[in-house]
Fold:
Amino acid sequence: MEKNRQEVLEELLSMLDQLAYVRPEEIPNIDLYMDQVLSFINDRTRYLTRNPDEDKIFTKTMINNYAKTKILPAPVKKKYSKDHILLLLLIYYFKGVLSVGDTGELLGKITERYFGNNEEMTFEDIYKEVFKLEAGEIEFLKKDIVEKFQIAEGTFPDAPEESKEFFKTFAFICLLSYDVFMKKLMIEKLVDECCKSVEDKIQKEK
Structure:
């Protein structure tokens, strides 16, 4: 039975309610081999993929490429630490928005100083602080999605009756896409400014 548009909206909102980041305390406190890392991350993030029964967040090739391009520090004796897993999770969240180069540039400023560092602010501290924002942001997103849905419902009043459902959904997709497009431009601008600011500071200290 085909879902009506209200059911689709409720499904989208329910999906947001189910989102939950991987908490550092869930991550083993022992170093893991590649297969163990893949099993841990893919098991806990599979629900975020488009086709959970088939898709994987990471593969061996992907992780090896991140190490080769210096986005991910190399494993020690083929084992990956808790910080490696936290960094991979951050890479995953960014890779849908930023290029590999921008992701490496941004996260590199953090890993250079805090990866594997247990003396001052740790990499885990940074990860926790970022994801503390999750709950409030989800509530904001739910409200924003409902508003966009309602706007889309008022579009294409003169479309042929048999096509109205499609065009309303198309309008909804356009509203969501425009939001993502504009935020992506802003994120790229912020990455450029953030990384430039760090480089300028380093040059002055030299």
